[in-house]
Amino acid sequence: MKKRWNTGSMIIFLKQLELHGATVRSSQAGGDYDTSAITIEPEEGDPLFLCGFNCDDPVDAKDDADVEMLELSDGLDSRGGLNSSDPITCAIFGTVISALRRAGWQVVGSMDEYF
User: DSSP code of 81?
Assistant: First the structure.
């Protein structure tokens, strides 16, 4: 089941969470099957990256599209997900993934396994 990704709305959603002072901002759009990314950057620690994606249908409007899943990763390992050992990064990751799943999103560590 697809859900509506809107980059601006997702940034507002994330900023309402306890992110230990991390900056939340939009970053460059990805490939054909994913949305614009959002970077969650703590003052100290490793940043996290979030984007939506589809397995079969290209994403035409990078900031406002229906997507199947979200990818949440720290970008430290090609396998995706959380690889950092920084306590703030780990806390933010847990807060974000929990909030997204409670909101009905399917969140995965890497979209690579779907392609």
Answer: S
At residue 64, φ and ψ (nearest 5 deg) are -155, 95
pTM of the model: 0.94
Separation CA 67–CA 29 (nearest Å): 14
Using DSSP's 3-state secondary structure scheme, residue 27 falls into strand
- 20-40 residue pLDDT tens: 999 999 987 678 999 999 999
What ranges do the domains of the chain cover?
Answer: 3-114
Starting from the edge strand earliest in sequence, which strands make up the sheet with 69-73, in order? 23-29, 36-41, 48-53, 69-73, 107-108
Euclidean distance between CA atoms 51 and 18, whole angstroms: 20
Answer for the pair 47, 29: CB distance below 8 angstroms, yes or no.
no
The encoded tokens of residue 115 equal 């392609």
The first and second tokens of residue 87, run together, are 């306590």
Closest CA to 92 of 50, 34, 30: 50
Q: Are 40 and 22 in contact (CB under 8 A)?
A: yes
Burial of 66 (0-12, 13-18, 19+ CB in 10 A): middle
